[in-house]
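Input set for joint prediction.
Command: fold jointly, output tokens.
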Amino acid sequence: MIEFELSNKIKGARDMVHMVAEQMMRPISREYDEREHEKPWEFMKSLWSVSGSSNFGDDKATESTGPRESNLSSCVTIEELSWGDAGLYLSIPNAGLGGAAVLAAGTPEQKKRFLGRFKEGEPKWGAMAITEPHCGSDSAALQTTAVREGDQWVLNGTKIYCTSGLMAAEKSDGFVVVWATVDKAAGRSGIKSFVVEAHTPGMTVVKCENKMGIRASDTAVIVFENCRIPLDNILGTADVQKSTEGFKGAMATFDATRPLVAASALGIGRAAIEFTQSALEESGVKIRYGINAAKQTVIERDFMDMESDLHAARLLTWRAAWMMDRGQRNSLEASMAKAKAGLAVTRVTQKAVEILGPLGYSRKLLLEKWMRDAKINDIFEGTQQINMLIVARRILGYSSKQLS
Amino acid sequence: MFDLEMTEDQRLVRETVASFARDEIRPISRDCDESGHIPPALADKGFDLGLIHSAIPEDVGGYGEMRSAVTGAIVTEELGWGDLSIALHLLAPRLLAYPVIDAGTPEQKARLLPAFTKRFHASAAAVVEPRFDFDTLSFATTAKKSGASWVIDGAKCFVPLAADAETLLVFAQTEAGPDAFLVDRGTPGLTIGEREKNMGLKGLATYEVELKKVAVPAAARLGGEAGSDVGKIFDRSRIAVAGLAVGLARGAYEYAREYAKDRTAFGVAIAQKQAIAFILAEMAIEIDATRLLLWEAAWALDRGEDATRQTVLAKRYAATMALKVTDNAVQVLGGHGYIRDHPVELWLRNARGFTAIDGLAIV
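tokens >
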């Protein structure tokens, strides 16, 4: 039955995470925006201890009981964490996107070996390394190689834009999932993903990027130079099949992760909207719904546009997650949600800065930061344009050859 | 728990109305626009769907079914997909029947509702006023108490089917706020004007209505002594309008999508060009997004929540979306979109009407 009420379980998780966002993230939000590359260790450690085995913020790595709603639940809690601070949210120790890849394509043994560690010990991070200096959206064009030598794979290449790459590769006992080709001539079919344990010789973080926003989160450049890993660290089969099933399987990870990224966008957008509303109310401006358009002010209209744009994105996001929880294929809906949310949060935060003028532009307040943080959602995990392309192919029934 | 699955009943209703829209409405849509006339036979077929009398209480001859705004949104989407003029014509009797069901006195129900259970029964509400700042919270048309009567003064426009309606539900401002009155045809001072000529919605007969010192008895006030909560009526109207907008837009999107797959340029289907493909993708995203906003607002209404904010946001989002989607559909067809051999220009003209048809409470 069509219903929009969240379950009590999700609401409970949301309320708890909201407290974390309000009490632990907002107070240090500006500090770690200004002090890029410094690590909020205290925050990271306390999040690691409170999340414990539930690994919250990204509970994909846990098995849930009862009605399956772990994806929806993640979307709701991630929105709260990003409401607190999107950069700090991304820096929370967990299996992250690397974990999502292991979960999607790993054997039961691999899941245990790589994901078990997130339930115990010191804080750990999992990261995903796909993008290379010369290729981003076109991940099939990547050039990092994996060559089999005896009972090892040898990786060579350079990866960029690896979120939490520093934490996963060098500052904890985590891992990095690396996309590499075992056969360049095979194109997409040759692309496989490999798990590289932290501290593996030959894997070096050479730089962390200086960014416009989400500065509390490290974005690493990782060089692989004759980096040797065990044979059974490949996710899925090593066979280069004629078909592109392996690549498609890897891309299917995005069906799960895109709604989560969309959810993060929603949190930033909501922060901006709430801030705008309270700043307006302090100045005696109240939004009047249901009056004639001719009587509304431009501010009222802009504000309503912001609200509905963001909420429309939220419902598309929840739909994509809800489908995932039901085991339905959701590539179309996941890309719809990501495309809409990235665009909506970009528009909403920019409009908020515009409406509030000096309050919006000043670094004394957080709104200008939210605008900078927001923009990444239109870029990572598939740019706006890539997601539109995926939506277009799906609704038209076109292959990537027919519509490129 | 969050769920987007329709009930079995909702699926059945949707399928029934969708086939009606496809088999009965679409084939005559262009003719109705050109001739300005909707065949009475179609209205009777529409009546057989139970669009009106299913919600009328059993003791006055209806089916007494529970009304759901969510189901209403599903139904109006399918009718809007068929044709907006015809949809509004078929639903116009609800403009009187639903407020009477919701807020009428027992006497008002017994007097007015049975006629809606026999066959298509033209009736209407006079809501919209011919002024740019028309406002459902504050009508320019006034109703003043004079002894035992109410005296109504003002001008209305965009009153559908007014020439055939036996009774009009007239919205007017009293000292206490907006209110509604049942005004019978022939009441002195009530003049049904010429049929209006509109840019779109040309199949739908709409009229200007003038009220000059129209005196009605106290019992003609909707809800009698108690009056009625007019705000609630308009919350529901926004759901209906948004549902129609989603359906209209979906029709335009589907048409443009299929055209773009057929039409070739530079050796490929134009849909294979990103410039076209991205327009279609945006249409698909926005239609789905609007439907979800609307369902959520409808769901809140069904739970009895104060959903004015949600219905306002859903309705304005839907109206903007429908205009953009139909405009883009014309754009995808290019020159062909501008020619009346294709339906997209009609849909664009109709979509522009969503600003005018605010206040038609039909869900």
